[in-house]
């Protein structure tokens, strides 16, 4: 793996946020030496009796054993304690029958060590594909992990799941609800192979809300479509993407009921955390030096708007232009053209930030290249395209494509 | 534009081929200073009375004025002389009404200068998008171009159409037919924005065959699908892609008739030139250091096989692994998974060259990393994936993704 020497220039200025204790969850993280040495690489979250768990997963047809196992288990009953274990360094993907055995061995060992039904033990693995996971290195550390469980351990846990990430990612929100406050705290890791249908992305969100599994699942599915499924770093989709949310029910607030105001407030809070984490993942995209919001309006349909947004956000020529701080709007026109969406060259409007660069099929009369070039120097770039045809809208977030991406990925396994 | 200092390491060892005179065609090339200085940037081909012309074009919905004009004209009657004029440096794409006026001005001027019906004058423009084409610089040179017309001028013409190309691209073949020999000679330029539905790619093929326009069009459409529509450099599709073929009918060989042996021989010859030129375009892909053939077999359908081939050939993670000479077959699994095609992890077989790296859902028992790493040092890499599900097959050609691509494209317009 190429050494990552420096933190992304787009990392949050304030560093990792102070995440609150979520009543009912304890964390542990330590060095198991799964692949890396000299850093924590395994995290365990122990969840109290009755915790409801929901999740969303990669749609890859070659998904990993751990993802398949989680998908089987999500939606089961919420009786008894639960646990989530994550290792970094090896994704246990495309590892044949041995991969399934590894997941079974780990979940069985956790079940035994913590007294949790095996059907309530969830695991994720991230890292290299196709090499057998040395699961014994993880199970050998279970006693230590158990002894280290601590309700304040979430920030160490967020560090344990990192691979090529240059900073740990966390986000939190509090929601005022009937009878008390609901807290939500989440962590994520990126940072390559990021594309809709998720990414090599692992996301764990913890809340003390009282909420049924089915309602929680509905909300997280809806929020995933508006957040993690709208980001892309390199258009590649991982075999291991997993988002799990665990609700302990320990908040004094009343149980959430679908369609009510408190439920909507919870949803908005959840979505804000997921959006924050999704943006942090993009900002830590391999080699990223610019964060780009791609807005598309005026498409004949939402689906067409998404096609255009995706074509722009995934275009290597657009992304290298952003890297070069070049207001090369011709490449936006190219991306619109190749998207497959209905488009009329002469009704296109393209803006960089508030600067209209092109309209009516040509460069805007008020535009000058210096304005565009100055705008492109910012860290955060907004590219807006109006197709002028209908009311379909979409937004995607991406980063630029730089030498850093090549350096990291041309030498990942060496 | 970033300076291209060195010729691609994948350039044909023998240099530009010796192209034959095609009876009925004369070429001229010179410096018009459209954008570049100190190099030829305009080429003119004059085609004799009765030449039939067929073509294939980008499917971009934002295609350039010249492409739209060619599409209008192809298929018209073949009476009188014809001409093809190409300029490099400015693509005249997304230039509003002015773009159409520029095409009309150039074609009118050629019509007047050479005594050719305007409906038989074809043009292409390649280069930067969105800047007005200084067409007067081209028409000012028409007398010089006319004076320079020479049946031996094809190799200079091939140089005049280059943009970021590091070498000119030519190919030729002779076909023995009833009554004599048929010659075909072609030229192409790449080299970024290359993807199915063509690319920033201009291709001009000349033959002395006697052939009807409709038969010629059928053959070139069919051959495009098996050649230029199977290559990708960066998944981006240009607004300007154009392939034109002109048949002068000057060969002593009998007129080609569909379904006959001579016609099939001509088709195979044409396809071989188109494949050669397509490969040369990929080998000159921006920053390319490796040529990659992606073979997919065993898919449930041809369409699924193409999806998988395209997902592999366009994956930045696969392409950076190739750049790093890393036999990272896990990224092939990832690409299969994200392709959207039907796939069963446990029936996948992946080979690098003749080396089976993965089968039955895991690394092959006979595989060792040293074998794979040695293979990846070659300039030409074959990656084969068998899905084990059906008889759908596809092949695509691509190149690696290197620092060179970033360097060229992050600074194209500066």
UniProtKB/TrEMBL annotation, chains A, B:
Substrate binds at residues 163, 189, 200, 286, 409, 414. It holds the Pfam family ArgJ. Coiled coil: none annotated. This is Arginine biosynthesis bifunctional protein ArgJ. The record marks 199-200 as: Cleavage. It comes from Celeribacter marinus. Belongs to the ArgJ family. Pathway: Amino-acid biosynthesis; L-arginine biosynthesis; L-ornithine and N-acetyl-L-glutamate from L-glutamate and N(2)-acetyl-L-ornithine (cyclic): step 1/1; Amino-acid biosynthesis; L-arginine biosynthesis; N(2)-acetyl-L-ornithine from L-glutamate: step 1/4. SUPFAM superfamilies: DmpA/ArgJ-like. One of its GO terms (molecular function) is L-glutamate N-acetyltransferase activity. It is found in: Cytoplasm. The record marks 126-127 as: Involved in the stabilization of negative charge on the oxyanion by the formation of the oxyanion hole. Keywords: Acyltransferase, Amino-acid biosynthesis, Arginine biosynthesis, Autocatalytic cleavage, Cytoplasm, Multifunctional enzyme, Transferase. GO terms for cellular component: cytoplasm. The active site is at 200 (nucleophile). GO terms for biological process: L-arginine biosynthetic process; ornithine biosynthetic process. Heterotetramer of two alpha and two beta chains. It catalyses: N(2)-acetyl-L-ornithine + L-glutamate = N-acetyl-L-glutamate + L-ornithine; L-glutamate + acetyl-CoA = N-acetyl-L-glutamate + CoA + H(+). Its main location: cytoplasm. Its EC number is 2.3.1.35, 2.3.1.1.
């Amino acid at each position: 793996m190429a050494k990552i020497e420096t933190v992304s220039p787009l990392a949050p200025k304030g560093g990792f946020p102070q995440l609150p204790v979520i009543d009912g969850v304890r964390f542990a993280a330590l060095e198991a030496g799964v692949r890396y040495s000299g850093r924590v690489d395994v995290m365990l979250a122990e969840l109290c009796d009755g915790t409801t768990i929901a999740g969303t997963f990669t749609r890859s047809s070659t998904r990993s054993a751990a993802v398949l196992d989680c998908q089987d288990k999500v939606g089961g009953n919420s009786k008894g304690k639960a646990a989530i274990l994550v290792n970094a360094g090896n994704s246990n993907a495309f590892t044949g029958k041995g991969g399934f055995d590894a997941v079974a061995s780990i979940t069985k060992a956790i079940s035994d060590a913590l007294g949790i039904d095996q059907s309530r033990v969830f695991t994720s693995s991230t890292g290299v594909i196709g090499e057998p996971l040395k699961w014994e290195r993880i199970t050998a550390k279970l006693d230590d992990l158990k002894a280290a469980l601590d309700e304040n351990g979430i920030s160490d846990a967020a560090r344990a799941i990192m691979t090529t990430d240059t900073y740990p990612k966390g986000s939190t929100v509090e929601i005022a609800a009937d009878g008390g406050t609901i807290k939500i705290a989440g962590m994520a890791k990126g940072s390559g192979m990021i594309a809709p249908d998720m990414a090599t992305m692992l996301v764990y969100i913890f809340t003390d809300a009282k909420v049924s599994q089915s309602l929680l699942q509905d909300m997280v599915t809806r929020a995933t479509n508006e957040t993690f499924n709208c980001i892309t770093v390199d258009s590649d989709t991982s075999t291991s993407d997993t988002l799990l949310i665990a609700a302990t029910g320990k908040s004094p607030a009343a149980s959430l009921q679908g369609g009510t105001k408190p439920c909507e407030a919870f949803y908005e809070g959840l979505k804000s955390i997921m959006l924050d984490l999704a943006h942090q993942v993009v900002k830590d995209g391999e080699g990223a030096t610019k964060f780009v919001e791609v807005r598309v309006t005026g498409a004949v349909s939402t689906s067409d708007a998404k096609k255009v947004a995706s074509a722009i956000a995934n275009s290597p020529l657009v992304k290298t232009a952003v890297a070069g701080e070049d207001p090369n709007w011709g490449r936006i026109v190219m991306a619109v053209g190749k998207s497959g969406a209905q488009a009329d060259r002469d009704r296109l409007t393209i803006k960089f930030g508030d600067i209209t660069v092109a309209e009516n099929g040509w460069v805007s009369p008020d535009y000058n290249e210096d304005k565009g070039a100055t705008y492109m120097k910012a860290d955060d770039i907004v590219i807006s395209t109006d197709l002028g045809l209908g009311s379909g809208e979409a937004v995607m977030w991406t980063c630029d494509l730089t030498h850093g991406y090549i350096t990291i990925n041309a030498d990942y396994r060496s």
